[in-house]
Amino acid sequence: MAKPKLQAPVVKNQYIELAITGLGHEGEGVGKYEGFTIFVPNALPGEQIQAKVVRVQKTYAYGRLIKIIAATPDRAEPACPIFHRCGGCHLQHLSYPAQLQHKRQSVVDALTRIGKLEGVTVHETLGMDNPWRYRNKAQVPLGEIDGRLAVGFYAPRSHDLIEMQSCDIQHMYNDQIVHTTKEILQELGISQYEEATGRGIVRHLIGRTAVHTDETMLVLVTNGRKIPQKDVLIERLRQRIPHLVSIVQNINTERTNVIFGRETLTLWGKDAITDTIGSIKFEISARSFFQVNPVQTEVLYGKALEYAQLSGSETVIDAYCGIGTISLFLAQKARAVYGVEIVPEAIEDAKRNAELNEITNTHFTAGEAETVIPAWYHDGIRADVLVVDPPRKGCDERLLATIADMKPERVVYVSCNPGTLARDLRYLEDHGYKTVEVQPVDMFPHTFHVECCVLLKWSGDE
Ligand code: SAH
């Protein structure tokens, strides 16, 4: 066995040359210096670089990129002028095909290293034809820069506003909503909220676009009920923002980082906009959750439907069902779908969406998947197909244990974190399941997020 290293081979402020061999979880370049791991933001795999060591920990260090000695052909010029300061995107300096390859590789690495899974088919990442302007929701704080009203983003881990003129991953309509509203607020002298003093009126602007119906919504989050010149404001917003069908005010008087307050009022137009995923309609109100990239959601959940291989007679459980997107997708081809989700408001939305689409074979319950599904099992509910779409921390072991007891023929695992996915697949493999195939789907181009859909089959009795 190698002796444990007692000391890092680098010190702070040291200049080192490094070959970058991989990307870390947040898109940083990773290389080894005398066997010691060094993270260098903005450096890319395949590059030879010079870095200055800025932070040394026991088992790794961070370096600042000083010079690229040999660049990779995959390096791209970031499209956005504030890419290096904003923190919303992580990979604009990597060409899109290379991003897709990297995302697939990170799934393969997690499956082998963490899941100890050999020989699983991992398909090429399904990317977007046009990986820009895909976000359907913009949520931006207001601030003041040189005496002017400004919109932008907070720099990573801070509350310094970085001004944004246009966001290339945002739907064009949302960009228009945000910038036109800012102009009108400035014209009317309606002030922005100031965190330091708690004074001023408008805290955040939220633009939402329904990409399939072209309806748009503006939400003004304000520090109080009163908005000066409200009628003129509404009139100008209506005249100058295309496709606007809803203007909503949310009141947040707390001194907090939380964006929304408790009270929401419709100032003009509809309470909600309507969008579709596949053939299913969804009503999206100011605060409801909705998938951020509707185009790729359809691709990802289409894969889940394909993997579920439904003939119409199956009982399906959709664990972590959110607003029921997957449940409603599958309900059209199944006998019954049982959805469970921890947020009660999301379950209300799921039920409303079922009604809106006249789908009558779904049953939604609010609660923890790891508590509700064992109770269903106890009550005699048996799923032929079980779908899970958990948050980053993956599935609770109590849920996995219930799956192993219930033995649904197929498990479809939708994951936003390859690490916890690999851990959970190992558990299921150890309890009689076989991982058949894995399909990564790029839901968030230019960011480090990796999503995939996995098909598992019961094979324990073979
Ligand atoms: N498929 C969903 C989105 C899933 S995101 C949709 O289409 O809307 C993961 C969801 O898991 C979130 O909605 C989150 O609120 C929920 N969640 C987190 N922990 C949970 C738990 N222990 N039990 C059930 N749901 C949980």
From TrEMBL:
It comes from the Bacteria. Keywords: Methyltransferase, S-adenosyl-L-methionine, Transferase. Its EC number is 2.1.1.190. PROSITE patterns: SAM_MT_RNA_M5U, TRAM, TRMA_1, TRMA_2. One of its GO terms (molecular function) is methyltransferase activity. GO terms for biological process: methylation. Residues 9-67 form the TRAM domain. InterPro entries: MeTrfase_TrmA_AS, MeTrfase_TrmA_CS, NA-bd_OB-fold, SAM-dependent_MTases_sf, TRAM_dom, U5_MeTrfase_fam. It is an enzyme of class 2 (transferase). The active site is at residue 416. S-adenosyl-L-methionine binds at residues 291, 320, 341, 389. Belongs to the class I-like SAM-binding methyltransferase superfamily. RNA M5U methyltransferase family. This is 23S rRNA (Uracil(1939)-C(5))-methyltransferase RlmD. It comes from Tumebacillus lipolyticus.
